[in-house]
């Protein structure tokens, strides 16, 4: 057998390369929407026989074709609340209160997002981990019927252990508890939190893989980056904050990182539940219905503020929804675009939209951390700063601890917050969830926070970028070439 293999291994390798390479090249040609991406992958597959096809299988397939619930509102358990449609935002309301350009944004969201723009919501901002964790733990402790938690990272550290213990106690008192953790995010701590939760009686699943065996091929590059907690179908928490002690000043002191998280109530809770429960069903085959998962009736009346939309995006039928929302927002801006992002690596389309807005006279401010937790990403994003700075936009390096927040405000009226970074992974590969908020008070709150950050930030300048050593700039450009996979 071995003698035959040694004699014919070139022929075997050739056959395997053809068997694997031809379908991979066809798949890339037929499924990629950008010609550069299609040509690049076909080139890799042809020039690297066998290995190229394997790389494509691991990192090139960026759509999950899954049997989703296809949530219609009639399928969600509303209990006594049977008229959710009454909370949908009327086009006349937006046009009258905010103008026709924001009506255009509503129309865009109606057409590309799966969930409606609703009235009768409330949103509260937590700008530190201690505040957010404290409120989430309090809500978990008061849960009576159900807890649904989906997150990217859930560390087995002092903060993670607090959450695990609270979830275990809830399960023991009869609360239906479901926890979904990303397969990559679950590996951030060793041992993972999974064993503690399962030993305590909490039903937990891993998204898109198995922590011990490995990731699910061919979708190993696709992750859930969503952070959602829903308590009793009444209140939800979402935003950018993972569950880990690095964001707690109580534990990490002055070295703790910053992030922003949100507590919401109202009809938007229904849509956040739809997003998270769909992900849960994808992994567990369990449909979350019945009395425990009923959505409670909002306390506010239809037509009252705040206007909110839950925007789910990811490599399935919601592919690039967040990208489309951002393109629309940049196009309707008239006065200001304010962005806070830890990983700022927008594609050419978004850069063009930003610099076009700046050329129209819109003030564009982009705030990124001075100290980043991902050095390679920071180097790659620095490589394209010149494209933005030479076209009337401003970039600021925020001093102090690392800020993981993802915030955006347009003209002091419209805001977009949640889990999406402005990088290729969030915009095309990850499952993300964001909130579209049309409310002047909320948008102005974000802008005041951004202004406060800029006061102590250092401006990035073209001269400063160009005066650095050539070797440093070359390294950044090389890393930038690989930015779609960072």
From TrEMBL:
Instruction: Keywords in alphabetical order, please.
Output: Cell membrane, Lipid biosynthesis, Lipid metabolism, Membrane, Phospholipid biosynthesis, Phospholipid metabolism, Repeat, Secreted, Transferase, Transmembrane, Transmembrane helix
| CDD domains assigned | PLDc_CLS_unchar2_1 (cd09157), PLDc_CLS_unchar2_2 (cd09163)
Task: Give the residues annotated as coiled coil.
Answer: none
Residue ranges annotated for the PLD phosphodiesterase domain, each copy included: 220-247, 399-426
Question: Which GO terms of type biological process are on file?
Answer: cardiolipin biosynthetic process
Membrane-topology annotation of the record = Multi-pass membrane protein
InterPro entries under this entry? Cardiolipin_synthase, CLS_N, PLD-like_dom, PLipase_D/transphosphatidylase
Q: What is its EC number?
A: 2.7.8.-
Q: What class of enzyme is it?
A: transferase
GO CC, any one term: plasma membrane
Instruction: List, alphabetically, the PROSITE patterns matched.
Output: PLD (PS50035)
Localization (cell): Cell membrane; Secreted
- The superkingdom listed in its UniProt entry is Bacteria
- Pfam families xrefs: PLDc_2, PLDc_N
Which GO molecular function annotations are given, in alphabetical order?
Answer: cardiolipin synthase activity
State which residue ranges cross the membrane: 6-26, 38-59
Sum up the protein's function in the record's words. Answer: Could be a virulence factor.
Enumerate the PANTHER family for this protein: CARDIOLIPIN SYNTHASE, PHOSPHOLIPASE D
Q: What is this protein called?
A: Cardiolipin synthase
Which species?
Endobacterium cereale
Phylogenetic placement of the source organism: Bacteria, Pseudomonadati, Pseudomonadota, Alphaproteobacteria, Hyphomicrobiales
